[in-house]
Amino acid sequence: MIQTSDRFREHVARALTDDDLKVALTRTTGLLQSRRRQVVDEYAEYNEARSRAAAIKDHTLRYLGHYLEMFEANATTNGAVVHWARTPAEARRIVAKICTDAGAKTATRVKSMLGEEIGIAEALEDAGVERIETDLAEHIIQLAEDPPSHIVMPAMHKTHEQVATLFDDKHTVVPDSHDIPDLVGSARRELRQKFLNADVGISGANFLIAETGAIVTVTNEGNSELTCTPPKVHIVTAGIEKVIPGMDHASVFLRLLSRAAIGAEITQYTTFYNGPKRAGDADGPQDYHIVLVDNHRTDMLGSDLQPMLRCIRCGACMNHCPVYAAVGGHAYGAVYPGPMGSVLTPALSSLKAAKDLPNACTLNGRCREVCPVNIPLPDMLRSLRARQWDAKLASPVTKAALATWGFMARRPKLYHLVTGLGVHGLRVWAFGRNRIRRMPFAGGWVKHRDLPRPERGSFMQQYNASEHATRNRK
Amino acid sequence: MNESEIQKPRVGLFVTCLVDAMRPNIGFASLKLLEDAGCDVEVPQAQTCCGQPAFNSGDDATTRAIAMQIIENFEQYDYVVVPSGSCASMIRTHYKDVFVDQPDWIERQSALSAKTWEILSFLSDVMHHQPEGIKFDGVATYHDSCSGLRDLGVHDQPRNMLAGVEGLRLVPLKDNDACCGFGGTFCVKYPDISNAIVADKTQSIKDTQADILLAGDLGCLMNMAGKLSREGSKVKAFHTIEVLAGMAGDGGICGDET
Amino acid sequence: MSDRESILGAIKAANRSAQFAVDQIEKEAADLVANPEEVQPKFEGVSLLDRFIAKATSERVTATVDQVVDMADVPVIVSEYLSQAAQNGAVTVQESGPLDEMDWSKLNRTSVLAEDGGIAVTLAEFGIAETGSVVFRSGSHGPILQNFLPLYHIVVLKASTLLAYPEDLWSHLGGKSAPQSRLLTIVTGTSGTADIEAKNVRGAHGPRFMHIIVVLD
């Protein structure tokens, strides 16, 4: 996916006038919030699980090299071929080569945001392999030629009416009706043969278990197992921050992930893959590859952005973000949208390329409140703003305004004088009316809102003229 | 009897830049209630801004300079009280982030942060003060401002105190804890997104059919009241403290001066 | 320098970690999960079986459950379930283990696993009461796909293999150094998706119907 975060404002302008998008977002975010709320309220041990999960991630990140080497050794013993890729380009090269060596013509895919990050679609195209997305949402956006708009529900931006039109147009056999269950049934029908005939199956991994060398996928549909079992080759791509020590540690995260993501205690399929087909197995792939990807994670390690590496990709933050709810995921122009995307995108690309993302946030803090691994998202967004400031990326207007503000704020007498004048000026500007509807230099405000007419004098002016002040001055 | 061990606590009132310019009545209401509660209140002259606009824009140097001024001028008091969740939180929760590399200031900053309070929670949790004999007829709905709620845990205190006001009925606001879209500089940097968020908020407010909107932060109130006004709504908006002090007599924020 | 070396080198530099003792790391890791009961939802005096059934039949899981005392009665229960569901198609039964030798004469048994729309009867190795889940592993006892391809999945579960929590499963399987199968799956109810407008639909790619027959052994 080509990142277009530098055109955030353009995307936002379009999104705010998109009525279908508004319908889609309204239909979904409220449901996701209430489902999560309910299942979290039922889980008495929730806060303990959260702190424990955050502590496990912090521990693992502290000894990341040790755990990655342990994972590699155990996975290799299991029969996996483990590859390392510093960059997306290298990861693509590895995936393309595996496919070419296997003489692959088709590849089924289980949704993986890391796969998006490294550009798997490009890798498969280069290797002349037909890419078949199998998650319902990924299937939808593949047909629509859209990028994903949410990390758990990539087709959140589509209404079911839009999906119906798409399937009528693109499915070999049209859906039985436009009801959502029949749309799902149509996708099931469309993809069944493709699962069974694919040459390569590509998945991500929700977790990498160092002690056993297992990878874990957490899914609902059954497409993970249908992707990773029939083909001759199974390829896993995963970020290096996905590793955790052992199975008992995994159990802590598994209790949090689906609760936070979709409001379920557990998803339908929690599957541990331990290698290729063994002697005697009735089915399974012959070859099994794991590609471990860095892509700037080592840059985040040891920095003020390190907590971001705890992320288990649940999507709760964006489900609760008022900005995401207003503009949708595509506005961010990146693989990861919403609050976590606003931290990751600058980290994975550059401060400049994703300039708006850390700033288009009210710092309201709901994201931090719902994060199952206690990532201090607002703090990191502010940190990124401080980095932007130091890198002189702030707009000249902001810099000038703050310089003036800062100058005055440090000089109380001057500040009070100017404020008093300003208050008087605003009162005059109001022309005797109670509300101000138009104001030069305040276009951003008065475009959509009125301003109150101030009182006769600032607080400090009125106070200093009062009896209380006279008494206190003694 | 208040929780503070001090007989008559000395309070430094920090009114905030928005209250100073746009709604001094909130400052006077704060002063009145603090004195009613038994505090000895002073208004230091050297107060301007808490530094939040600079902090949220990433300008740590300016933030620090402003913070040093606040520390110098307010550290002499037993408590610093602020009629705003976001400004109180700036001092209480976030000042530590700008003094990371200043070991000689950290102790002073830490002491000041620890005794800085948002006003409703101060009156309720420290002074155990409930205003008496306050009458205000109307149906009100309450919006929980984000910093006050999430950083400082301000939730029950305003509701408990408002319950003691005769004639006032509170009705719940749908998504009362959802952001109103103000976000300080956010609302002027991204006005159209802010508008989409506040439009949802004003719809929820209108759906309650309340005639009053209450909250604890002037920024949020100006944002919501400004939008309600633009939409032609007759809902009046006040800061909770104005109602509790019996000083909510005019048309409210963005309302008519009676 | 290989990518592997470059990544491990970058990690070392970022963590500024001095030489650490492996047994110290292991102890820290073990301490982090030493008290699993602190994160396990409590059953509140309910038996494992009752908890399992309550969860399995809940709206979030949507399996149906039957109980039988004698393992030999399983085929009868299967017949009854399928006739109630008006399903008279061919049925595959796991071709090794206790299920294989039972009397399936009343049903149209086939050894051809249908690509879709089929009915399969398999034996779960374990059940997990916390979530109403059943556990399958790949191996020589049958294709693992037999649990994913059918439309109707009938699961036979021995009550004696019910465990409370997944942590119990790991220790039951022998811990980290125990030999593993290629695939181990914890299955909780019927396949589903909420990808369209967050509406929950059953039967995405996996089974749309799951009937669990608990043998009270």
Descriptive notes:
- The complex is a heterotrimer of chains A (474), B (258) and C (217).
- Chain A is of the alpha/beta class and 474 residues long.
- Chain A folds into 2 domains: 5-299, 3-Layer(aba) Sandwich (Rossmann fold); 396-473, no CATH class.
- Helices cover 51% and strands 11% of the residues of chain A.
- The longest helix of chain A has 24 residues, at 19-42.
- Chain B has helices at 17-22, 24-36, 52-56, 60-74, 85-98, 103-114, 119-126, 146-152, 156-163, 186-189, 191-208, 218-230, 240-244; strands at residues 10-13, 40-42, 79-82, 116-118, 135-142, 166-171, 212-215, 236-239.
- The mean pLDDT of chain B is 95.
- Chain B is globular and about 55 Å long.
- Chain B folds into 2 domains: 10-125, no CATH class; 132-244, Rossmann fold, CATH 3.40.50.
- The termini of chain B are far apart.
- In chain B, strand 7 (212-215), helix 12 (218-230) and strand 8 (236-239) form a beta-alpha-beta unit.
- Chain B is built from 13 helices and 8 strands.
- Chain B is of the alpha/beta class and 258 residues long.
- The longest helix of chain B has 18 residues, at 191-208.
- In chain B, the strands form 2 sheets. A 4-stranded parallel sheet of chain B has the order 2-1-3-4, sandwiched between helices. In chain B, strands 6-5-7-8 form a 4-stranded parallel sheet, sandwiched between helices.
- With 217 residues, chain C is an alpha/beta fold.
- Chain C has 5 helices and 11 strands, in the order H-H-H-E-H-E-E-E-E-E-E-H-E-E-E-E.
- In chain C, the strands form 3 sheets. Chain C has a 5-stranded parallel sheet, covered by helices on one side. A 4-stranded mixed sheet of chain C has the order 7-4-5-8.
- In chain C, strand 9 (192-193) and strand 10 form a beta hairpin.
- Chain C is globular.
- The model of chain C has no long low-confidence stretch (mean pLDDT 95).
- At the A-B interface, helix 1, helix 15, helix 17, helix 18 and helix 19 of A face helix 1, helix 2, helix 3, helix 4 and helix 8 of B.
